[in-house]
Batch of 2 targets.
Target 1
Amino acid sequence: MPKDALKGRDFIAITDVSRRELEALFETADYMQKHVKGGTDALKGRILCTLFFEPSTRTRLSFETAMLRLGGGVTGFADPSASRTVTGESLADTVRMADSYGNAIVLRHRIEGAARLASQVAQVPIINAGDGTQHHPTQTLTDLYTIRKEFGTVDGTSIAILGDLKHTRSASSLCLGLTHFKDVSLFLVSPEQLRTKDEVKDLMKAARLNFVETDDVEKVIPQVDALYVTRVQKERITPEEYEKARGSYIITAKMLKRAKDKMIVMHHLPRIEEIPLEVDYTRHARYFEQAANGLPVRMSLLSHLVE
Amino acid sequence: MPKDALKGRDFIAITDVSRRELEALFETADYMQKHVKGGTDALKGRILCTLFFEPSTRTRLSFETAMLRLGGGVTGFADPSASRTVTGESLADTVRMADSYGNAIVLRHRIEGAARLASQVAQVPIINAGDGTQHHPTQTLTDLYTIRKEFGTVDGTSIAILGDLKHTRSASSLCLGLTHFKDVSLFLVSPEQLRTKDEVKDLMKAARLNFVETDDVEKVIPQVDALYVTRVQKERITPEEYEKARGSYIITAKMLKRAKDKMIVMHHLPRIEEIPLEVDYTRHARYFEQAANGLPVRMSLLSHLVE
Amino acid sequence: MPKDALKGRDFIAITDVSRRELEALFETADYMQKHVKGGTDALKGRILCTLFFEPSTRTRLSFETAMLRLGGGVTGFADPSASRTVTGESLADTVRMADSYGNAIVLRHRIEGAARLASQVAQVPIINAGDGTQHHPTQTLTDLYTIRKEFGTVDGTSIAILGDLKHTRSASSLCLGLTHFKDVSLFLVSPEQLRTKDEVKDLMKAARLNFVETDDVEKVIPQVDALYVTRVQKERITPEEYEKARGSYIITAKMLKRAKDKMIVMHHLPRIEEIPLEVDYTRHARYFEQAANGLPVRMSLLSHLVE
């Protein structure tokens, strides 16, 4: 595939790219690994506008670092409060401004569909750094890249996603990301009230991705290659449910004793209490590597999309 | 005029430069148009300090982008809350710090005269990114450039400025900017209580700029080449005045039907409700182009001022 | 000493470096003076991560400018409020993120020992930009450099540190910094309740640095080469103590009449009322030069530490 196929494109959902394009992105990420501490001049003279209507230090810093490592420049805002004057302004007008200044726009927003709307207004590529509860495609790209690095491929792996599957955009976005691959077994482990949304399940069914919903994490752990942990927030469920869920959704080193030898524990970070520090010292912990993978993956993406 | 005439100078008010210097700035802005998406190395190794004591995302991002496109670097703060530790400090001390670090300082401040004070303290050029209620010279440079681009020259044009002419610094600053040009007809359209300040009117009279004050926007629209819209804020006038003003100071597509064919609608943005979305689709809307012009204009200014 | 001796090292306390290393840092700072307005390409392709859990405009801007002047890039956050999403996260996890993105990390934190903890987690150099109440080694490096520039050496000088010596980290850190030098006479001038902490005094005793504690600033002024002023905050002492202290801890031009001819007044800035503006115009004021010295000193430090 010529690199040009992605040039100038938006990246709003992980399903916006084909399997072949995904593989091209992964291969460029492999190449970028060599440049994560040094940098290149690939995007010299180009500017990335980072519009974070919702703050996210990790995602923003990884994008900024990626752009700087490619020799480009960065401007934008980190936080809606630091851009009070645009709060009354429509999203479209703010995006038009950034469109006239930058060569690409990274957008994060609380509202579902914000990035898609932005892409209809802007000429330059829009990259969705998370919007609403379903899409966070660069996180998913990083997650899939991490699994691929560990097992050679995502095809044929067995994955569990754990926690608040209803509200966590990284979880829904990973579900969608897995539809690109063959023979994946997916376990969706959550309290009853926090199950994956129907629209996401419908898309998985349409793509013939096999998934099982359960609330029994203990039973799932021995069966999977990767355990993707997200947090269950107290305020999202009833106190009784929470007490019941709490024990199951904190992954201890003891629980991991029954895991496969090569099973990896993933997390989009920041974690609070759902993965205790003791797990960091097990052979399963892969969330710090996963976070580090965000850099070459975003370097790859920017180098493909930005003109 | 040799480029050097502006080198090292401050830019506090639009009247700080001569007509010839204005034209030189516009010509360089024309040239910079070619570099707005690519960039040059003109200011490589130079650093711009952005001190935004009052937040302004648009102005800040356009300055940062301009400096980065010229190959320079940027540091500073976007917001007084992000610089809590300097709040107790005098403006002069903060400016002295930036003076010793950067090659030029961009300053925005709520207080009238803040930029002038800064220029008395600093060795490096101070650029006023808006202070008090009268001066916003880089906005005015952009506005004048937009009119010139549309009509070939600002001389001889007929301009209306509409809205809160008392408190809107872009409005007062444009009045001052128009004193540089010949045969301009200026209509100042506002509610009685929000008229242009006497000191601004005195300066226009001294420069023999003809202006008419009115509150009848309907009558003015057919006569002008450019309609510059600003917002009337509810809290600034009495409820009765507001109800009366509201209808007149929201510019609808219908009102524009009686405008000249080539009349342009301008706005310093962000807009809230004073220009409805429907106007975006008329042939008159020029506010997005105006915003985009802020980039080559600021690239021009920085390239002239910074040593 | 080969430059490599500092390469890759952390800089958590001023006592982390030897006297020889200090001198090497000062010599490089002398060299960097030539580049403070132009810049070099020494750290091209390198990225500095600035993690300011406690805001500090001066320190942050001087680090950012230093890195940009060395040809490198900068990312990070200025303020914990701009990084809400990491607040629940452990410091170690945030540092691990920055460790995987940047080539060095600058950290500022309210909590004692935060920088040391970070250095145990990170592979890249950690530079302490102030933590707790004792350490602010880059401020001290700047302070010592300022004294050396004025008097040729720090050895044999007589120094007074004035104000809240208990809580001001720049004061404690300077005490520690002076342990590197010979024949220094140190006067610690403070209200009874705001004396230097015992642990700092113990380290000075161990290093055989002579110091005298007093609350009589008038008596000290004629004896010293440098008067280092810090602020006494009202809320830290009793109202009676404050009223008594207030007069003594505001350094007026009149008080300086009895000073040695070449005595210099220093302050880590920002100052509030402890040094009135009138002092700026005396031959003793050196705090603005001191602030400006922060840039070549930090350029020197970064060029030595970053790989």
Target 2
Amino acid sequence: MFNNRTKIKALLSTEPTGQEVIVMGWVRTFRNNQFIALNDGSSINNLQIVVELGLLDEATLKRITTGAALKVTGTLVPSLGKGQKAEVKASAIEILGDSDSEKYPLQPKKHSLEFLREIAHLRFRTSTFSAVFRIRHSLAFAIHQFFNEKGFVYLHTPIITSSDAEGAGEMFQVSTLPLENLPRTENGNIDFSQDFFGKSTNLTVSGQLEGELAATALGDIYTFGPTFRAENSNTTRHLAEFWMIEPEMAFYDIQDNMDLAEAFIQYLIRYVMDHNAEDLAFLDNRLKEEEKALPQAQRSEQGLLEKLQFVLDNRFERITYTEAIEVLLASPAYKKKKFKYEVKWGIDLQSEHERYLVEKHYKRPVIVTNYPKDIKAFYMRQNDDGKTVAAMDILAPGIGEIVGGSQREERLDKLQTRMQEMNVPVKEMEWYLDTRRFGSVPHAGFGLGFERMVLFVTGMSNIRDVIPFARTPKNCEF
Amino acid sequence: MFNNRTKIKALLSTEPTGQEVIVMGWVRTFRNNQFIALNDGSSINNLQIVVELGLLDEATLKRITTGAALKVTGTLVPSLGKGQKAEVKASAIEILGDSDSEKYPLQPKKHSLEFLREIAHLRFRTSTFSAVFRIRHSLAFAIHQFFNEKGFVYLHTPIITSSDAEGAGEMFQVSTLPLENLPRTENGNIDFSQDFFGKSTNLTVSGQLEGELAATALGDIYTFGPTFRAENSNTTRHLAEFWMIEPEMAFYDIQDNMDLAEAFIQYLIRYVMDHNAEDLAFLDNRLKEEEKALPQAQRSEQGLLEKLQFVLDNRFERITYTEAIEVLLASPAYKKKKFKYEVKWGIDLQSEHERYLVEKHYKRPVIVTNYPKDIKAFYMRQNDDGKTVAAMDILAPGIGEIVGGSQREERLDKLQTRMQEMNVPVKEMEWYLDTRRFGSVPHAGFGLGFERMVLFVTGMSNIRDVIPFARTPKNCEF
């Protein structure tokens, strides 16, 4: 057995009593030929290794460079340095892997996020990104734990699909046909019957419809999987490949749906605050430092930790779309013609409108319900007013839409009529309609964009920095 | 709030004291106009609803058909029937959704698995499939819990990739180019610079290489995501789209790797036995019934529960590939020429060989190590004998290979040489080689095929029956 190490996170919370320990990790810095800051990825904090004079020969000392991998045997003793309870007094150091400090791209200094994006394969080794990815892990685990505790079934909906029912945007085609020489039918069309699945297929944009099938049998289900949009959006909030969580619940109406979504988001934030306090403190400080360079007006009113605590302590504001439009029309921003896009009943809320509602007016997350039916999907439940549907979007400060959901139309006739009105291919979706034919029930669900949630919790500002390897237009590296 | 129901699973473990309850679910059967078996997907067990004479009018009674959805208000009282502790004496029944019993595809009788595969959107409503998918959920949760407890970071590796480094098989192409009219370069090739990512891209076959990048920074990571093979394999063990778990650990050698994999599999089995006892008992019984139709020789020696307990109680056998070949050559099966494929050192073990080792010879899971280097991937660590690599495959009874893993080659020169020998494009993989250039460490990992694990634990025999919507050649429905 090689791996008889103790992780640094564990050592740093152990009472140091001179016990023998083995640690392994990578050198962050080496000062005065005496103090090694060692990191193994388990914690934002480094472990200080003290190398006494004469322990190592000159040649070995020279190999202790930034990025080098070490195996250290020694004793865990109280530290005299500030900010750390324990350090290791080394009795033996083995160099597992050298790192040529001339060539190592990560120097012990601050690198820009843009530069680190170029070397995404190494950025896991920085404090910022190790914190981000540990928090991403915690959020993912908290999601599973939240739903598991409530008796939800985790459902893997298909990634490759032959339906484009959602109409949620541009899709990626999936094929095994030889592109250089595509087979054709007699009348000159591409012969998809020769494709792997015998038909044209795409990458999924949502697992919701399949989720409804399972929910109307198992009760409560959720998906958590990758989702795709082939949109040419080069923004700080869009990815071509991202992860989404889509719970779907039988016997839920839109109120139940809102209650669940709010409890869910608060649970996730609380979990990370409980389990990643040191990572959050680091990122909180990082954000403060970043914002020092900005003019006062562009700085956040709240620090990261303050913002998260605020979301825990305050209920989300719940307003209807109609109320949202009224608030916007009555706003100083509208009167001073500060909105670029038109404001009137029937519009799709633009980012500037959402930000005004959340950041200026209500100053907290807002749930907007009952949108005009014409700007929402066919499956949303029609309200009695004939104009709106039981949709709900959650808008978060600094992020905008983080959750989109609705009560689903469970009435077969109304659903069929709406599908026809919106040119959804009814015939290809008989399987979906079967849930309304046989024991149809009120049900609801929502989707949470995982990376947007990670952005919100880490305080990072570009979505490419919260996913290990971003896929965006013209960018598919690693 | 609509959803003020109590789930049937909770009610069935509650002491019945006449308390008022609300339950919602779907009718499985309705006997004598008096006893409704109601199921809400939370449990394999139905709740008995007792309808007293005169509670409902004739028209309503007729609407209580198999598949109909009900909201039942009543009192939870001790049951006189056998096999159930509690039942609900209804005070009000509301029909949430009708089900025309003439048209409902699921009748209260046994359907074949083949038929249910055709109506995969409804099979969640059967006892067998609800049990399978609850167990699938539990396995997924147990996977996250196992790694979270050990301080692993859950990593989402990319689904769309531009590299084919693994060479693990046929890949699905991903593109947004207009297939009807593909853009061409001046010399007539397809102009992938106009594609979404500016190059040719595919669906991932493994997240391992990206996993290594994160492991050599964060220490221990695991992936759990969809993986794709465009292989034209129509078998009971292959899917074109399946889920895989790939842990990758820094500072691990192959022994550490085997220890982790064995502990992992045992943890998963124990978790399901602890949390899904009723579902397992149902499937155990189902398997016994199925096998009654088979000749004695084809029946399993152990029942499902027996088999799972056996795996918990016994260590996995650990043998080298060379020992495996010796066992096969000395076997009665070999001497009687019962193997279809040749047996000699250097072959890739065939399914018949694996089954002999596991089911006939060792009668338990077997870990085979140190395979010939020429039948394994370039990244596996080369042993000192110059002939073998530090690979490890775990073979399970009835399933065959369930885990494939190895210690990785951490020595830059040896890795580069092997890549050249195997025609792996070294230049495109400089990012991968960087992990060996800067602080390289011994590390290892493995992949577990999730659906094969679900097969093993549920005792189902076709992999299409343990994933919600199977993707196989010429099949991409729902």
